[in-house]
Amino acid sequence: MKTANKYITFAGKVYVLNLDKFREVCTPKASELGTREYEISQVYEVDDDGDFSMQSKVEHETKGAGNPQNDMIVYDVVKMFVMALLENDKPSNEFSYDFGTAFAINTLLNWGVLEEI
User: Fold this and answer.
1) How much is the pLDDT for 3?
2) Which residue would you say has higher pLDDT here, 59 or 37?
3) Residues 109, 96 within the same domain
4) 75 and 23 belong to one structural domain
5) 81 and 98 both lie in a single domain
6) Residue of 29, 88, 38 whose CA lies nearest to 61
7) What secondary structure does DSSP assign to 6-58, as a single string?
8) What pLDDT, on the 0 to 100 scale, is given for residue 36?
9) For 57-78, what is each residue's pLDDT tens digit?
10) Which DSSP helix (H) or strand (E) runs through 3?
11) 18 lies in which domain range?
């Protein structure tokens, strides 16, 4: 069986979604240590003189790769591009590239998420 027989062509071209590239684009890279969050909790109590004195102090540091809000924005943009392609359900002989579809294809091809084979 030929490899070409496994694929369905659309307008004479064959595309695949590269899930490795999708993951690479949508998730932070471990080597890019990004934000550090600090939480400091201090407990004060009244001492025998009526003054407040610190009884305990807890510092907690969390290191994360990237910024979760920015990562979600990138994921949502890629999701919108993929959905724009999947929801365009016209057959290839009726298909026309509107701006959104062309923009999605160009961007996904440029990022390597969508590959023409």
Assistant:
1) 55
2) 59
3) yes
4) yes
5) yes
6) 38
7) G---BTTB-EEE-HHHHHHHHS--TTSEEEEEEEEEEEEEE-TTS-EEEEEEE
8) 72
9) 888 887 766 666 777 888 888 8
10) none
11) 3-28+66-116
